[in-house]
Amino acid sequence: MQTTTLTDQVSRQLADDIGRGHYAVGEKLPSGRALAERYGVSAAVIREATERLRAQGLVRSRQGSGCTVIARSSAQGFQVALEAGRDHRALGAVYELRMDLEAGAAALAAERRDAGDLQAMRAALSALARHQEDPLLGAEHDVGFHLAVAAATHNPHYQRLLQYLNQQLRQAVDAARANTARQPGLADSVLAEHIAIYDAIEAGRPEAARQAARGHLRNAAARLQLNFPFTD
């Protein structure tokens, strides 16, 4: 039986409130702290819940200005079922998609990155190195690095799609990180995979970046015991 997470519950409650007009289109949602108090959850849960609303096309978020409601009903575009993070076959299929998308993003990043992009990637790698033994913080900075690579494509569609996929698969990333923390030396190998992607991007080598990203995600899938092709 599948369990419902706090993020599932809060994102559903927020979406229902928006649908009923409790938060009107054009209105800003309350601050993260206020929402955390209202729903009795942590700020991290609120961040994940509002990110799901953003991916569904219900809100728009901007750094420093919070979330603004932009629609009362979810966009009917591409979506990944929440169960993908918990179902072996569904998770495998999304990892296969993510592998090619992120490999392509890494190649583009190697061609288009600027000094700010490289600085953002280095900051994510530095944070990942400091917290690689911590499953929760490690997952946070792992996702942050991949999003920094996506931003370096300077293609907003890559950024939005990969941000959405990473958010939907956050539970799987958390699981992979927890598994990594239990195996001596594995965290160093995972960090080295990320560094290899960065080195190729910094050097402006698109094909090397593509292969490094593809290899990293294939290894990540293996750490989750997902096989190619994906079967039950």
Instruction: Return the CATH class of the largest domain.
Output: Mainly Alpha
Task: Let me know the CATH homologous superfamily of the largest domain.
Answer: GntR ligand-binding domain-like
Give the structural class.
mainly alpha
The CATH topology of the largest domain corresponds to Four Helix Bundle (Hemerythrin (Met), subunit A)
From the structure provided, what is the oligomeric state, counting identical versus distinct chains? single chain
Report on the structure:
The chain is mainly alpha-helical. The chain has two domains: 6-69, Winged helix-like DNA-binding domain superfamily/Winged helix DNA-binding domain (Arc Repressor Mutant, subunit A, Orthogonal Bundle), CATH 1.10.10; 88-224, GntR ligand-binding domain-like (Four Helix Bundle (Hemerythrin (Met), subunit A)), CATH 1.20.120.530. Helices cover 67% and strands 3% of the residues. It has helices spanning 6-19, 32-39, 43-55, 88-112, 115-131, 135-151, 156-168, 170-182, 186-202, 206-223, and strands at 59-62, 66-69. A two-stranded antiparallel ribbon has the order 1-2. Helix 3 packs across helix 7 and helix 4 runs antiparallel to helix 10 (206-223). The radius of gyration is 18 Å and the shape is globular. The two termini are 17 Å apart. The model has no long low-confidence stretch (mean pLDDT 83).
